[in-house]
Amino acid sequence: MNSLRSALLLLIAAVFGATSFFQAQAAVLPINFAETEIVGQLDPTSMTIAPDGRIFVCEKNGKVRVVKNGALLATPFVTIAVDNFNERGLQSLAFDPDFATNQWVYVYYTASSPVVRNRVSRFTANGDVAVVGSELILIETENLSGSVHNGGALHFRGTELFISTGESGNGANSQDLTNKLGKILRINRDGTIPADNPFLGTANAQPSIWAYGLRNPFTFGIQPGTGRMFINDVGGNSFEEINDGIAGSNYGWPNSEGPTANPAYRTPFYAYSHAVGCAITGGSFYNPTSAQFPPTYVGRYFFADYCNGRISTINPANAADVLTFATGVDRCVDIDVAPDGSLYYIARGGQGGGSTGDNTSSTNGKIFRVVFTGSQAPSISVQPQNTTVPIGENATFTVAASGTNPLNYQWFRNNVSVPNGTAATLVYGPVVAGDNGAIFKCVVTNVYGQASSNEVTLFATTNTRPNATILTPTVDSLYSGGSTISFSGSASDAEDGALGASSFSWRIGFFHDDHDHPAMAPVGGITTGTYNVATTGETSANVFYRVFLTVTDSQGLSRTVSRDVFPRTANLTFTTVPTGLRVYLDGAPMTAPFTVEAVVGIERTVGLENPQILGGSGYRFVSWSDGGAVAHTISPPAVNTTYTATFASAPGSVGTGLKGEYFTNQARTFNGAPTLTRNGEAVNFSWGGGSPAPSISADNFTARWNGQVQPQFTETYTFNTSTDDGVRLWVDGQPLVDKWVDQSETTWSGTIALVAGRRYAIRMEYFENGGDAVAKLSWNSPSQSLQIIPVDRLFPDPISLTLSTPDGAAQESAANTGNWLVSRTGPTGFRWR
Q1: What's the confidence (pLDDT) of residue 247?
Q2: Could you give the CA distance from residue 130 to residue 78 in angstroms, rounded to a whole number?
């Protein structure tokens, strides 16, 4: 949040009081739609409608609440011990597809013991409560290094449970298949792994991963009937995304955000910039059992933005068809469609204090039900509240109504219309002594009738708000990673005199871009204290801490003041010798030289690919100027500093291509000596109706390419074969493609995790039956755009490994490798030497 907007909102909160300024307001809906508040006073993160119509609400503090017949039951379904700091806590719930018979309920939450990690557990219901001791832990993420970007949505498709996880504030997690963070996971309802999960056979990959490259997929939706999945990924600096959920997809974070032309990443189905909103939430397809809304809404996807207060719809068949459905929603976090065709949404509200990024807690979260009514008279959906205001200040009353537009508002004081009181919100004042006890109400009218709000009372008091002063930190204070922020203050009140520690409450927020995260939860009863700044976390320099002091007098009037503490920064320059080589900073690849502004003391990670190729020449790492290893952590000093990575020439690091062998062989085997052998090849051939050479027949020939491949990046690579006709491909002995069939030009792919600079055996076999002849081999990865594997990444040298073969026919083919000595190692493998 920018400082001007923060200051303005904080000023309003201080003048009017947080409770009056942040009253929840109902949404502005399309004509012929109405909403009703179902329940309030919640700390909600999500809701799920049970098959029998009950609404199960997840509260961030660990309670699952039940709304039954329109009333919130006093006893929670279950209370779970959670880590409730920042964005952690209880996130979501799902019902088993056979809930009517097995009574299974699945819950996603942040466990605090024995370590902090996100967990999915299954509970068994007994009526409106869970069976004591019925929790069965199904899956857990790795330990959480950060307190933000938790993800946490659950949905079934068939009998398989899909789980969205955030990257825990560390973008590198999203591209790392060895952990479950920043992913969509898929498990069976007993916690086992489906046999067709896309990375099940990938070395070191977590088998539960179904898709990856996500930042904070807080919500997603699955369309009834079609099974189509839309993933809402909360963005970083630029875009909010709706992504098509497709198995094996890489959505690009942190290397890509928003629309992308990079074929390594799946571009969003729809994205909008942070000029429009800041955090996409909600997410539900309107495909109920009984459609209540007009036909134009059926099949559309409803989504919301936490910051702009808007619920929108999008046509799954046309990303350009986006319509606003509702405005004025107070921090929507979830949307659900009931079987009867009504739509529910959660307005979370928040602590107040002027921050739309407040994540810690809420006591005023509400659930609203939206129905289509046709033409109707107004109805009051949010009532005004009694308020106490010091003489000389303004009083604020708010009402919300639904019904056929246009709606006309008129406020009354003691049954006398208030001049200019013709809006949903009335700002009345300055209040005088004679206003004490005055009764206010609002009458809302349209052409179909009218509705009156409840009558509420204005209490005018001679008591004045206390005064608060922050003594430390001072206005020019700066912080570094690892430093301590000391805070102290004083307060006085015209009626009470000097206020003691019992009147004080402190909290600290950490601000980044246009949003903030709680750094220190509210602490009361002290006039001084300290906060220790961590040495890890957000690495951007556009950050600061804001210290809030709230003081409250004996009559309950309060005032909040704040002080910002900005970071010490220094410029870090990264260079290489020779210049132009690739450096990883915090997991992001960059070409040296480059300079970044860093917060002093906040640790950064720097790494290199080794070896590297530049301009056709190979180079191997020698040393960093600071003495660090190839990859190491640095703590930015208080002065501008240059870090130089020195490389030495390494001619053997540059590939010269694969060894290609061609056979005129109608049996599609590789028996005997090849008709033609060529070195230095990349596989990029379109022979049309011809052949590789005059000595090779135009039809019914085979070819194979042997050697090694050297990746530039440590990540998961996708190898793509495009052939007409048959093809088989092994990398590091693993069969990635096995399509030994007649086919027109078709692309097949397989994935494998590789380490930068290491060489891996690669073998591609091909046969041509008739017609056109095509053979191409390409690759891509999160950092490698789609391209034909170039000669300088390919080597003709043999390597010793085990070649796994998928079936008997492939074994016999592999057993006749010509230049390779092969020994049988078992029913599914051969040894290449």
Answers
A1: 95
A2: 6
- Give the residue from 533, 539, 512 showing the smallest Cα distance to 603: 539
C-beta separation of 150 from 87 below 8 A: yes
- What SS3 class is residue 543? strand
Which residues, in sequence order, are CB contacts of 162 under 8 Å at separation 6+? Answer: 154, 155, 156, 184, 185, 186, 210, 220, 222, 229, 245
Specify the CATH number for 3-372; select among 3.10.20.30, 2.120.10.30, 3.10.450.50, 3.90.190.20: 2.120.10.30
Q: How far apart are the C-alpha atoms of 245 and 183, rounded to whole Å?
A: 11
Specify the amino acid at residue 170. N
For the chain, give the number of residues.
833
How far, in Å, CA of 176 to CA of 155, rounded?
Answer: 23
* Identical topology for domains 379-461 and 467-567: yes
pLDDT digits (tens, 9 = 90+) for 434-480: 999 999 999 999 988 899 999 999 999 999 999 999 999 999 999 99
Q: What is the mean pLDDT of residues 129-134?
A: 93
pLDDT of 798: 66
Other CB atoms within 10 Å distance of the CB of residue 204: 10
Higher pLDDT, 59 or 359: 59
* Structure token digits, residue 434: 């004679």
Mean per-residue pLDDT for 367-380?
A: 85
* Model confidence band, residue 360 (pLDDT cutoffs 50, 70, 90): low
| DSSP letter for each residue of 400-450 | EEESSSPPEEEEEETTEEPTT--SSEEEE-S--GGGTTEEEEEEEEETTEE
Q: Can you tell me whether residue 5 is helix, strand or coil?
A: helix
Residue 820 pLDDT > 60, yes or no?
A: no
What is the fold of 569-652?
Answer: Immunoglobulin-like (2.60.40)
| pLDDT reading at 157 higher than 80 | yes
Nearest to 338 by CA among 292, 295, 296: 292
User: What superfamily does domain 655-832 belong to in CATH?
Assistant: Toxin - Anthrax Protective Antigen;domain 1 (3.90.182.10)
Give the integer Cα–Cα distance in Å for 10 and 305. Answer: 22
According to the model, what pLDDT value does residue 350 have?
66
- CATH (one of 2.60.40.640, 1.20.120.520, 3.90.1230.10, 3.40.50.720) for 467-567: 2.60.40.640
Contact 374, 402 (CB under 8 A): no
Tell me what pLDDT residue 103 has: 94
CB 125 within 8 A of CB 50: no
**pLDDT, position 792:** 87
Average per-residue pLDDT for the chain: 87
Nearest to 86 by CA among 168, 2, 148, 160: 148
CA distances from 143 to 28, 107, 113, 330, 535 (A): 42, 18, 11, 32, 18
Give the pLDDT confidence of 716-762 residue by residue, as tens digits. Answer: 899 999 999 899 999 998 999 999 988 888 889 888 988 888 899 99
Cross-strand pairs, 409: 444
What's the rounded Cα separation, in Å, for the pair 56 and 52? 11
Domain boundaries of the chain, sorted by first residue: 3-372, 379-461, 467-567, 569-652, 655-832
**161, 187 in Cβ contact below 8 A?**
yes
pLDDT at 535 over 50: yes
Tokens standing for 703?
A: 């070819």
635: how many CB neighbours lie within 10 A of its CB? 14
β-pair partners for 125:
130
* List of residues 6+ apart from 38 with CB closer than 8 A: 55, 67, 70, 344, 366, 367, 368, 369
**Does CATH number 2.60.40.10 belong to domain 379-461?**
yes
Which tokens is 455 given? 């009558």
Tokens of 598: 């860093």
First to last CA, the chain: 61
